[in-house]
């Protein structure tokens, strides 16, 4: 028994160490920082989509509706439809800052400019009112700078920034203008040669792809890397598996974003932006699982959907300590903040409670997916803040579909039943501990 216990302890230690290293890996942490930085823009886009496609349509029609929707279209163009530009620029800044590079603005500029370099020189479009397509050059399309190219923006941003930082560290390539000139000018000249080398190199790659292979790096990344990766990780099985592993980390006191924020959320965000863009354009919604869907049906009350645990404890729990904690946790729990439950109940190092804590979010995601796939409710097409209270979150995320609220109520009810036996077991364990101490 001691040998088995020792092996289990070693496994836990190794798993914890792996998760911690993964969460602190500089590229993944920079990616997480980047999405957190531009998140307000996507929330704004969600508000615009909600107004354009739901609220305005309650009161307006015809030309008046089209005039009002122009406001929302402008916001969508300034957020969703330039997603790859935004993410590449912010990645350049965040990665260089995390590397300790002293000129992160220059890295951001290189990342943005390099992404533009890698885009196709000509595109095929269909003019308004025309039946045939034409080829035009000297333009950028939303398909190349928007949601479809976000993963390309991520990869190019990371690659260009790393190369730029490396070349900038070579002292022989730095131009020193002395201390007599303004610092901003001095920094600009010190990275002049690295600027030229990085952008010229990527331009050469882009020219070869265009002239020899008749393609571009944006298309290659999207087809070969982005779509297969999204298909695996944001499919039902992949999403449930990764999200469950992330929630399992709470058993060891590690925040689930260490895993989910690094591996899952960036791809869920790509799905989300595609859904919002499609909904804004009146097109079929391409993804069921996205950055609004998972928290709406798998994180009610916070990680582990602990709003159900609060209800189960307040209604059926006998232990005064856990009931007191749940009473204090009601208000933050309504906004999906559940650290008081996780550390006070507690979930950390509590084998008993971790079972429903991991299972319920997976069940919620599966039920929400089934309800959407069976057309019982609309897809999640509005990106909402993660602190949006349960029930309201379902209504807003689906752009005003009350059936999503019903689905959330069903999940919460199942969650109460799932947590209930473990609440009773936990009560008995706490009573035993209390009697032993007395």
List the helices and strands and how they pair.
Elements: H1 2-24, H2 26-59, H3 62-78, H4 83-98, H5 104-117, E1 122-125, E2 134-137, H6 142-145, H7 150-168, H8 183-190, H9 192-211, H10 217-233, H11 236-248, H12 260-263, H13 265-280, H14 293-298, H15 307-316, H16 320-333, H17 339-344, H18 351-373, H19 392-397, H20 402-437
Antiparallel strand pairs: 1-2
Helix pairs in contact: 2-3, 2-4, 2-13, 4-5, 4-7, 5-7, 5-9, 7-9, 7-10, 11-18, 15-16, 15-20, 18-20
Textual characterization of the structure:
With 438 residues, the protein is mainly α. It has helices at 2-24, 26-59, 62-78, 83-98, 104-117, 142-145, 150-168, 183-190, 192-211, 217-233, 236-248, 260-263, 265-280, 293-298, 307-316, 320-333, 339-344, 351-373, 392-397, 402-437, and strands at residues 122-125, 134-137. Strand 1 (122-125) and strand 2 form a beta hairpin. Helix 2 (26-59) runs antiparallel to helix 3, helix 2 (26-59) runs antiparallel to helix 4 (83-98) and helix 7 (150-168) crosses helix 9. The radius of gyration is 25 Å and the shape is globular.
The gist of it:
By secondary structure, this protein is mainly alpha-helical. The protein is 70% helix and 2% strand. It is globular, with a radius of gyration of 25 Å.
Short descriptors:
single chain; 438 residues; mainly alpha; two-stranded antiparallel ribbon; 20 helices
Number of distinct helices: 20
The percent of residues in helical segments reads 55-70%
- Going by helix content, strand content and strand pairing, the class is mainly alpha
What are the segments in which pLDDT stays under 50 over at least 5 consecutive residues? none
Overall pLDDT score: 87
Task: State the end-to-end CA separation.
Answer: 29 Å
């Amino acid at each position: 028994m001691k040998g088995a216990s020792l092996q289990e302890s070693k496994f836990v230690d190794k798993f914890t160490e792996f998760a911690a290293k993964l969460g602190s890996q500089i590229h993944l942490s920079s990616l997480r920082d980047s999405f957190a930085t531009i998140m307000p823009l996507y929330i704004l886009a969600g508000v615009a989509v909600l107004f354009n496609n739901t609220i305005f349509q309650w009161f307006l029609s015809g030309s008046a509706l089209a005039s009002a929707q122009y406001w929302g279209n402008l916001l969508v163009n300034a957020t969703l439809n330039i997603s790859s530009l935004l993410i590449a620029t912010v990645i350049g800044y965040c990665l260089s800052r995390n590397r300790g590079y002293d000129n992160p603005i220059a890295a951001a500029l290189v990342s943005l400019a390099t992404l533009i370099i890698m885009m196709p020189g000509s595109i095929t479009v269909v003019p308004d009112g025309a039946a045939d397509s034409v080829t035009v050059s000297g333009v950028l399309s939303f398909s190349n700078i928007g949601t479809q190219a976000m993963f390309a923006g991520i990869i190019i941003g990371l690659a260009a920034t790393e190369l730029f930082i490396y070349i900038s560290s070579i002292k022989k390539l730095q131009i020193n203008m002395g201390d007599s000139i303004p610092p901003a000018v001095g920094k600009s000249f010190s990275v002049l040669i690295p600027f030229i080398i990085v952008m010229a190199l990527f331009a050469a790659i882009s020219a070869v792809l265009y002239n020899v292979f008749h393609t571009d790096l944006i298309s290659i990344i999207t087809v070969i890397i982005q779509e297969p990766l999204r298909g695996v990780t944001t499919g039902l099985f992949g999403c449930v598996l990764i999200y469950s592993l992330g929630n399992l980390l709470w058993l060891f006191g590690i925040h689930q974003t260490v895993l989910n924020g690094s591996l899952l959320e960036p791809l869920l965000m790509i799905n989300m932006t595609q859904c919002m863009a499609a909904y804004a354009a009146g097109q079929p919604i391409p993804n069921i699982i996205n950055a609004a869907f998972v928290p709406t049906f798998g994180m009610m009350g916070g990680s582990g959907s602990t709003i159900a645990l609060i209800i189960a404890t307040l209604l059926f729990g006998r232990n005064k300590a856990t009931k007191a904690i749940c009473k204090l946790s009601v208000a933050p729990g309504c906004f999906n903040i559940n650290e008081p439950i996780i550390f006070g109940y507690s979930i950390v190092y509590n084998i008993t409670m971790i079972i429903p804590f991991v299972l319920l979010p997976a069940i919620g995601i599966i039920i929400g997916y089934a309800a959407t796939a069976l057309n019982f409710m609309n897809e999640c097409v509005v990106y909402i803040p993660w602190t949006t209270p349960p029930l309201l979150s379902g209504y807003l995320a689906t752009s005003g579909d009350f059936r999503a609220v019903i689905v959330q109520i069903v999940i919460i009810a199942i969650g109460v039943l799932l947590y209930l036996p473990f609440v009773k077991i936990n009560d008995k364990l706490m009573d035993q501990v209390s009697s032993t101490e007395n």
